[in-house]
Design goal:
It contains seven helices and four strands; from the N terminus they run H-H-H-H-H-E-E-E-E-H-H. With 170 residues, the chain is α+β, with helices and mostly antiparallel strands.
Length: 170
Amino acid sequence: MPGPKADARQSPERDGQGAPLALASPVHPALDVDAALAELARAPLESLRELWARRYGRLPPRSLSRRLLQYAAAYDIQARIYGGLKPAVRRQLLQASAKKPAPGKPGKTRKPQAMPPAGSRLVRDWHGRSHTVEVTDRGFLYAGRHYRSLSEVARAITGARWSGPRFFGL
């Protein structure tokens, strides 16, 4: 028969809903962090979902895995014991999230590459040989043959798939 100081890891006291008390009540600094984290591994999925709801004010998405719920609960336990993020880090995260583009609008979009005007010549040294490409209205002229894109020219020169603008340093 265990005495009053029974090891919480062997037989954790339970609240009325079956969740370990260490998980159901606010974490106290005196609570052994390792014991609380070990309890998370044995906690029923429903208890983890309740912890999430208590912490974030809403139920977790159905698709959220047990493992991610455990990670979130473990972070919460450690943050309450050791302290959360530093105010400067929290402020930076809030600022970064405020700069998020509106839904439906793309974030960073790449600007289309401005091609050199017709009549320009692009020169690239490759394996000791100089390759000259002329820009035309219809595309690019290299070694007497017409190409629709710089990438096609770069492939003809190297034998591998390259980004044409990158290959020619544009």
